[in-house]
Design brief:
The protein has 313 residues and is α/β, with parallel strands linked by helices. It is built from twelve helices and 13 strands. The longest helix is centred in the N-terminal third of the chain and has 23 residues.
């Protein structure tokens, strides 16, 4: 009888702890499709994923991890001259998502595409203000990551891992704000004309660069925009230059996950990953650049994302 009582007490204590953990962790992580995370990670962590819109071949596609249109077909079309356009997530779509959780008093962390590249972040702020008018107790934290592609994905991934370990919403928000400007984006593009169309480089630079096979090296500064910092001649040298900058900037490398995104150039992505793995024992996640980012960066873009002390180059 005494043993049964002890077991009952232990069971009640265990359930109490589990309930407290559930209350602490009873929040949802939301992101948009600029994160470029693989579908299996979206599913694993039950991330609420909102697709940006891409107008492609006279049809609007809401990004869905390559289900509606395959990444291969998308990039092949870009190589053949297609010129897609993208549009931000409007405030109404954010309102629908936020309201779903506000009705059930479930807090939200929305980890957003850089305000320096898209109006999506501002749409989410408008939606939050509208939600608070109707649900004054709603708890919605919005993070302007000043990041793109798997730079956003890295922050989402870290947030989900912390949540699994029992971190509170407040702890995760604090981590994201403290970390976001330490997430480095170092990348190269193959076709300068896509950057020219987006106003990132001048037509003259694009023409000369293409003729000379010059590959620009770019990064994302704290403002969350895109900036050139160097250039090399030839694809192999550009991949090596990404690795060199990675080594120069990365900190605590074996205690973080490294992310590589690519515009349908998996062999180059794997080559970059092998350069890193030859020297460091580290997990690397590789995925396609999605429609929203790929429409502007073009095929054969290659990017490495990692945490450093800062973003300066």
């Amino acid at each position: 009888m005494f043993i049964i009582i002890i077991l009952l007490i232990e069971c009640i204590f265990y359930l109490k702890i589990k309930k407290e953990v559930f209350v602490i962790n009873n929040f949802v992580i939301v992101t948009d499709s600029s994160c470029d995370l693989p579908q299996d990670i979206i599913n694993k962590f039950s991330i609420h994923y909102i697709g940006l819109v891409c107008n492609f071949n006279n049809s609007d596609y809401i990004e869905d991890c390559g289900k509606s249109i395959s990444y291969k077909d998308f990039y092949d079309a870009l190589r053949n001259g297609a010129m897609p356009s993208t549009s931000q997530i409007n405030s109404y779509r954010f309102y629908e998502v936020f309201e779903k959780y506000a009705k059930d008093n479930i807090p939200v962390i929305y980890i957003a595409f850089s305000s320096g590249l898209s109006g999506t972040y501002n749409s989410s702020l408008i939606a939050r203000e509208d939600i608070l008018e109707n649900y004054p107790n709603a708890d919605i934290s919005i993070i302007d990551t000043r990041s793109a592609s798997l730079g956003v994905g890295l922050l989402v991934y870290d947030a989900c891992v912390l949540k699994e370990k029992g971190a509170s919403k407040e702890d995760i928000v604090s981590y994201l704000e403290d970390t976001k400007l330490k997430v480095n984006h170092i990348f190269t593009v193959d076709d300068l004309n896509h950057l020219k169309r987006g106003g990132r480089i001048s037509p003259a630079v694009a023409t000369i660069g293409s003729l000379l096979q010059v590959k620009p090296l770019l990064y994302m500064p704290n403002e969350g925009t895109l900036q050139n910092f160097s250039k090399v001649k030839g694809r192999k040298k550009s991949i090596k230059a990404l690795f060199t900058k990675f080594e120069e900037k990365v900190v605590d490398v074996e205690n973080q996950t490294i992310f590589i995104s690519h515009g349908d150039c998996i062999e180059d992505a794997e080559r970059l990953a092998s350069l890193i793995k030859e020297k460091y024992n580290v997990e690397i996640i590789i995925n396609y650049i999605g429609l929203a980012i790929g429409s502007h960066s073009g095929p054969n873009t290659l990017t490495v994302f990692f945490k450093g002390n800062d973003r300066s180059v």
